[in-house]
Amino acid sequence: MDQAIERVDVVIVGAGLSGIAAAVELKTRHPGRSFVMLEARADLGGTWDLFRYPGIRSDSDMFTLGFGFKPWTDEKSIASGRAILDYLNETVDEYGLRPHIRFESRAQAADWSPDDRAWTLEVEGPAGRRRVACSYLYLASGYYDHDSGHQPEFPGQDAFRGTIVHPQQWPAGLDCTGKRVSVIGSGATAITLVPALARTAAKVTMVQRSPSYVAIDSDVDEEANRLREDVGGREAFTRIRLRNLQDQQARYQFARADPETFKKPLFDEIEKIVGREYRERHFTPAYQPWDQRLCLVPNGDLFHAIKDGRAEVVTGHIDTFTEDGLRMTSGEEVPADVIVTATGLRLVTLGKIRFSLDGEPIDFSKTFTYKGVAFSGVPNLLMAFGYLNSSWTLRLELVNRYWSALLTRMDELGAQVVTPVLRDEDRGMARDPWLKDVSSGYLVRHMAAMPAQGDREPWINPQVHERMKGLLDAPFEDGVLRFA
User: Fold this and answer.
1) pTM (2 decimals)?
2) Which domains occur in the chain, in start order?
3) Which residues does 340 contact at the CB level (< 8 Å), separation at least 6?
């Protein structure tokens, strides 16, 4: 190998929530291992640095979205994007991670050399292209494309005389004060944007093809704040985190087992603000709860904006953009000065890195996932992926605990390489999607490019906490992991 290559024990791709958690795990549990973090953006934070649209906030509570090793101490449990960025920067500085981060450094390709027992990454950075070699590669770059969101072409789009913007590329100088704004979409981004824009816009219209399930809840956890006074911040954080984890999983299981009963309190809270007729027309999805992610409406802000006349919802199909807004297939005209296309994310496979084994390209769509963290036939590679039906970080911390224990086991065995390998009885097993029982468009569009799940352990990717915990806590000697 070329002596000019930078060599470290571990490369972590990404310096967002996932990458920071991995780096803290590595630094505290394996202080003798050298590492760098490659961050394509000019600053840390990942999602929370990328999205700059009005009202950007967490869609789950910070007791579970925050790190278990750093208690969330703010009064609000549903936090603004700015507060989350501050929290991540504090974490990086407290654990001395900043010197390890290479900003504006995008991993373009990664090749595994069996002879060198190392990954060599081609990295594009401010000084041009360089190479970094590592024994272990940890992918913490998330699962969606930071370069652009999903942007379908609408008929007549070029005719519109106003401004069209996607939330992922929100212009810093865009001022919607006194303007008519249409937000196309019904997911978490649209539901966040509408009440935020409605504070100053003349009128905001959420234009949705079909409704999503939404849950009204407070952005302040009164019990957590009382507990802080009674038992102190750290103990309160631990108790509330466990409570919320159990509640999230219980609600998910309840929703899947008895969807009709689960829906009723959601609908009741909406009807208290906007009435039954409005709820039935615009907030009654055709699918079952948790076929797609449940969206949070803190303090009912979306519905209060509707009740006050500052916002409205139009449900139906868009026929065309016009010079002055949108026309629905029903013939209804939706006037707009600004149209926001909150039409979803575009997913990527493993950070858009070109992977190869000894020069041969890897097609991850042909692999099986090992416990939702690694891939059949691919050595010394782990991917961080959280929960979609619960807080992302809860699963990350299980993954990091597993990874830390795996590194320790490799040290005990004197192994430099670990690879999940299909057993004889696994060959020919059925292939299921990377994520099962989901219907969200942004996920379904990309499933064919992702690794598959098998029909047996350990070739599965659970979204249920106790099952994931049991899977990752199982012995390493499972007949699948090959240490060398």
Assistant:
1) 0.94
2) 6-146+346-483 (3.50.50.60), 157-217+260-341 (3.50.50.60)
3) 53, 164, 165, 166, 167, 181, 182, 183, 184, 185, 190, 193, 197
